[in-house]
């Protein structure tokens, strides 16, 4: 890795919640060098330090502070080998398409392209094999130089869910049913997000579109890709049924999910076997020695009252997931709790690991 060439990177939506996390993480990256920042016309033309309402408990990195924020136009980012996007979904779709058409490699956090049949939806600790669709995507959308593409990462709640599900399927075969109830942090709604008078002393049992995203995205991520690398195959155990119930809770960062699963295989694995499989799970991002991959993908807690967002969301800089309370379920087979950092592995960290994988696979 020490021989890895430096790659200039841009961040779209650099002033937002996810954008700020990108700036922080990229400021100390071993081979991605912050080069260009983009946001709305409200911010464009100002030095980043003046445009951003910085909300992280670290200083604004010096390199970013002085960069002048640009409009999100591809020509402003033409020197970037990688462009990360934390754009508002209202505008992300068209801007990201324009960047790809300009032959740029885009790693997006937004929902807009996740269902596109030639765009991979990659949770880097789960399905980097889906990168093999990129030559096909390039043949359609980047025919001139074959350098442009879009890779998306998942909805933050989907990300926390699919990591343990992938570990369980790898060890015990297909899952038949998944029931998940989320307790999602306020930061998931961006800044300024949910009004304080709506969320203090309260739980809001609705997050628009979130349940549908969790149910659909899980099947794409845990599915496969055709042998010729031109189509995704949705997960199809009968098919696997996923039911999500999503709630906003007064936590600043870290999505907690109560998960119950039923396996196709009978008899199902025991809680102890589940614990061992989750602990043992490793992934390709680790084998490739991606610098932002967690040392441990899934940390299993044995204390009866963990994981908790305030205590566990920053473990491994928020790059892995925490699981606890593994036990039998009287309705399905097994139930457990998962906690993932929605802004890190749920967003910016996933994009960065995806880009590291793309570099190591020779796609950039
Ligand atoms: N927050 C989270 O935990 C997660 C968020 N996501 C997704 O990531 C994306 C960003 O989310 P988040 O950071 O929370 O959102 P924020 O609302 O905090 O930030 C949005 C960003 O988009 C920019 N923007 C808004 N309008 C325009 C425009 N017309 N042209 C160019 N830039 C514009 C804003 O710039 P300006 O400051 O100039 O207005 C800002 O930089 C969203 O698609 C979201 O769904 C995904 C997973 C988790
Ligand atoms: N909707 C998520 C965050 C998010 O932005 O999701 P998506 O990228 O799928 O729109 C939350 O509120 O916690």
Automatic annotation (TrEMBL):
The reactions it catalyses are:
L-aspartate 4-semialdehyde + phosphate + NADP(+) = 4-phospho-L-aspartate + NADPH + H(+)
Q: In which pathway does it act?
A: Amino-acid biosynthesis; L-threonine biosynthesis; L-threonine from L-aspartate: step 2/5; Amino-acid biosynthesis; L-methionine biosynthesis via de novo pathway; L-homoserine from L-aspartate: step 2/3
InterPro entries according to UniProt? ASADH-related, Asp-semialdehyde_DH_CS, Asp_semi-ald_DH_pep-lack, NAD(P)-bd_dom_sf, Semialdehyde_DH_NAD-bd, Semialdhyde_DH_dimer_dom
Residue stretches making up the Semialdehyde dehydrogenase NAD-binding domain? 8-134
Q: Any idea which residues are catalytic in this one? A: 156, 255
Record key words, sorted: Amino-acid biosynthesis, Methionine biosynthesis, NADP, Oxidoreductase, Threonine biosynthesis
Task: Report the Pfam families cross-referenced here.
Answer: Semialdhyde_dh, Semialdhyde_dhC
Any single GO BP term: lysine biosynthetic process via diaminopimelate
Query: A single GO molecular function, which one?
Result: NAD binding
Please give the Gene3D superfamilies that the UniProt record associates with this protein: Dihydrodipicolinate Reductase, domain 2 (3.30.360.10), NAD(P)-binding Rossmann-like Domain (3.40.50.720)
Superkingdom, natural source: Eukaryota
Would the keyword Secreted turn up in this protein's UniProt record?
Answer: no
- Broad class of enzyme this protein falls into: oxidoreductase
Q: What is its EC number?
A: 1.2.1.11
Which CDD domains would you find in this protein's record?
Answer: ASADH_C_arch_fung_like (cd18130), ScASADH_like_N (cd02315)
> What is its biological role?
Catalyzes the NADPH-dependent formation of L-aspartate 4-semialdehyde (L-ASA) by the reductive dephosphorylation of 4-phospho-L-aspartate. Mediates the second step in the biosynthesis of amino acids that derive from aspartate (the aspartate family of amino acids), including methioinine and threonine, the latter of which is a precursor to isoleucine.
Which family does the record assign? Belongs to the aspartate-semialdehyde dehydrogenase family.
Q: Which NCBIfam families match?
A: asd_EA, PRK08664.1
Q: Which PANTHER family match?
A: ASPARTATE-SEMIALDEHYDE DEHYDROGENASE (PTHR46718:SF1)
Protein name from the UniProt record = Aspartate-semialdehyde dehydrogenase
């Amino acid at each position: 890795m020490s021989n890895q060439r430096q790659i200039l990177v841009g961040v779209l939506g650099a002033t937002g919640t996810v954008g700020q996390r990108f700036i922080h993480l990229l400021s100390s990256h071993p081979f991605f060098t912050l080069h260009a920042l983009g946001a709305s016309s409200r911010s464009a033309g100002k030095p980043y330090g003046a445009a951003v309402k910085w909300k992280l408990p670290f200083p604004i990195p010096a390199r970013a502070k002085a960069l002048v924020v640009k409009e999100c136009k591809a020509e402003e980012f033409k020197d970037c080998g990688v462009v990360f996007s934390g754009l508002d979904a209202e505008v992300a779709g068209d801007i990201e398409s324009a960047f790809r058409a300009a032959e740029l490699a885009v790693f997006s956090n937004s929902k807009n392209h996740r269902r596109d049949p030639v765009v991979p939806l990659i949770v880097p600790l789960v399905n980097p094999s889906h990168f093999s669709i990129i030559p096909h995507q390039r043949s359609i959308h980047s025919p001139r130089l074959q350098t442009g593409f879009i890779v998306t990462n998942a909805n933050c709640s989907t990300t926390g869910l699919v990591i343990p599900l992938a570990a369980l399927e790898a060890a015990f075969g297909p899952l038949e049913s998944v029931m998940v109830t989320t307790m999602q942090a306020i930061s998931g709604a961006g800044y300024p997000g949910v009004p304080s008078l709506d969320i203090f002393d309260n739980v809001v049992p609705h997050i628009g579109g979130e349940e549908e995203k969790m149910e659909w995205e899980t099947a794409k991520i845990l599915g496969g890709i055709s042998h010729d690398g031109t189509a995704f195959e949705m997960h199809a155990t009968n098919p696997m049924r996923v039911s999500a119930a999503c709630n906003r809770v007064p936590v600043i960062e870290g999505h907690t999910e109560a998960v119950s699963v039923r396996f196709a295989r009978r008899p199902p694995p025991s809680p102890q076997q589940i614990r061992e499989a989750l602990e043992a799970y490793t992934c390709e991002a680790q084998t490739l020695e991606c610098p932002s991959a967690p040392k441990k993908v899934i940390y299993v807690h044995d204390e009866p009252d963990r994981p908790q967002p305030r205590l566990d969301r920053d473990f491994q800089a928020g790059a892995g997931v925490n699981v606890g309370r593994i036990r039998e379920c009287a309705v399905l087979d097994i139930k457990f709790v998962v906690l993932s950092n929605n802004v890190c592995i749920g967003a910016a960290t996933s994009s960065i690991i995806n880009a590291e994988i793309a570099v190591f696979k020779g796609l950039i």
